[in-house]
């Protein structure tokens, strides 16, 4: 059985599998992969921005594993 720990994320105490803590960006299709991902800007992807706001409101973390609008970043 996986060990579950608690820590503070975005101002809320959340539970997480210890082996997965802090790995969400590594697994997410948005981060450093998609040209539409522009966090903290008004040009951010609507899906990513909506997920971020959902995560803040509900105290969850939701990496994107699949996306119909993904487009490769020109930087990478
Ligand atoms: S289009 Fe999809 S993969 Fe790209 S930033 Fe938005 S949610 Fe992430």
Could you write a compact summary of the structure shown?
The protein is α+β, with helices and mostly antiparallel strands.
Strand arrangement, largest sheet? 1-2
Low-pLDDT runs of 5+ residues are none
Shape: globular
> What is the typical, i.e. mean, pLDDT?
94
Number of helices: 2
Helix fraction? Answer: 10-25%
Q: Strand portion, in percent?
A: 15-25%
Taking Cα atoms only, what radius of gyration do you get, to the nearest Å? 14 Å
Structural class: alpha+beta
- In total, the number of strands is 2
How are helices and strands ordered from N to C? EEHH
Biggest sheet layout:
2 strands, antiparallel
What molecules are bound to this protein?
iron/sulfur cluster
Distance between the termini: 37 Å
Characteristics:
about 80 residues, two-stranded antiparallel ribbon, 2 strands, binds iron/sulfur cluster, alpha+beta, 2 helices
Write the layout of secondary structure elements.
Blueprint (H helix, E strand, L loop, with lengths): L3 E6 L2 E6 L6 H4 L18 H13 L18
Antiparallel strand pairs: 1-2
The structure holds iron/sulfur cluster.
The site of iron/sulfur cluster has 12 residues, from helix 2.
